[in-house]
Every structure is written in structure tokens, then in C-alpha cells.
Amino acid sequence: MRALYFLIMVCLAGSAGCFPVLMHGARVENGASFGLTASTTSGPTHVEGDEGGIYLRSGTIGAYGGYGWAPSSPTNPGFHVGVAVPVLFPATQLDAYVQAPPAWTGPLQAGIGATVDYESVHGYAMLGRQDDRGNGWSLHGGYGQRGAQSDFLGRSPALVAGGALHFAFARHGRVQAYVQTAQGRNPEDCFSDPPGATTRRCTPGRSTSAVTLGAAVGWHR
Fold first, then answer.
1. Is the per-residue pLDDT at 13 higher than 70?
2. Counting beta carbons within 10 angstroms of the beta carbon of residue 11, is it exposed (0 to 12), middle (13 to 18) or buried (19 or more)?
3. Domains and CATH numbers, the chain
4. Contact of 107 with 132, CB cutoff 8 Å
5. Which of 10, 56, 65, 82 is the most buried (most CB within 10 A)?
6. pTM of the shown model
7. What is the SS3 assignment for 54?
8. Are 136 and 163 in contact (CB under 8 A)?
9. Overall average pLDDT of the 100-121 stretch
10. Does 146 have pLDDT greater than 50?
11. 3-state secondary structure of 2
12. Percent of the chain whose predicted confidence (pLDDT) is above 90
């Protein structure tokens, strides 16, 4: 119940920016997990103050960790909470996911979740099929808005979709290869009229897209 409460609070928090860091499949596995992930992003950039060029959606290079509570029976949901800590921009990201009861989805697994960083939140849905060892595949799709830190830039919304292949090795090893795409807009161009006014006028950014490819290797207890 605490994990469900956490997910609800995340969903109410706002809306998000970078590609969601989903270091799990649609099936929740019991216990702790941690590892490293790296990805590369292709797509248009914009400049935001001293931060330099930032993609419409940025991939993450860093460490991750999480904990899962698998469904205790076919009629109960599963829960997973996780964190990704990048070595570069963007910021630390939290992830909360609820797996639907297995009795609802048959041989597949499905659920909903959200990721959040200090700028905003991203909601997603996931579908997949994994065996008891963790081997399998997953697909996900969602929506997010990045809230720019600059006073001259506004929101950057995007629809995000992707998929992953999951592999188990040795006794506790996990490998994940993933791809994600974003279709949305660059940040809004905002200004105050007259200068110094508390209200802003914002012009939507141009339509654009981005793609990220990545892999993760980790350990699951």
C-alpha cells in the first residue's frame, strides 16, 4: 500500500522531461536490483542558458537501483519503485510502477507507472511477457512535459514510446537492451509583456523528434 500511495503522489506531482528510465519489465520481480545504464540520443537540440545544447528528450548514463514486490496471488497487483542517478544532465529520476493482477492479463504482463525528476513527471503504460527468470520483452508508451528552468523558455511536451529486450544470465545477472522515441515540441519561447510583468506569453516550439538507444547491466536478488 505504501508503494501505491507513492505512485499516486508521483502522478499528482506535475509532468516530466528526459526519456523515462525504465530499468524493469512489465513483470515485477521480487527483491532488490541495481546496476548501470548508458544510452545515446539523436535529435535536434536547443540551448537553455548555461546548460548548453539539450535534446528534446535526453538519454541517461549512470546507475540505477530498485525494489519490487511481485503479485502474491493472481488476483493481486505488483509494485516496483526505483531510482536512476545520472553522472551528467538530466537530474536524478524516480520511478514507480504498478503491475496489473496476473489474472487480468493472462500470459502477458501489463501495468502503469510514472517517472519524476525535479523538473516534472512522465506517465507511461507497459505491456510485455517475461518468464520466471526475467527473460522476455516489453513495450511502453506515455506522455510527458519538461518544465524549462529558464524564464525565457516554457514547456516541452512529447509522446514517448519504446521497447526493451530482457535477458537473465548466471544466477542473478540481468541485461536489458532498449530503444525509445519521442515526438513532440521544443520548449516554448516565452516573454513578459511589459518587461518585468508577472505573467508570461509563450509561443509553442517547433515540432521535432528524438531517439535514444541504450543498454543496462545489473544484478537482481
1. no
2. middle
3. 2-220 (2.40.128)
4. no
5. 56
6. 0.83
7. strand
8. no
9. 92
10. yes
11. helix
12. 55
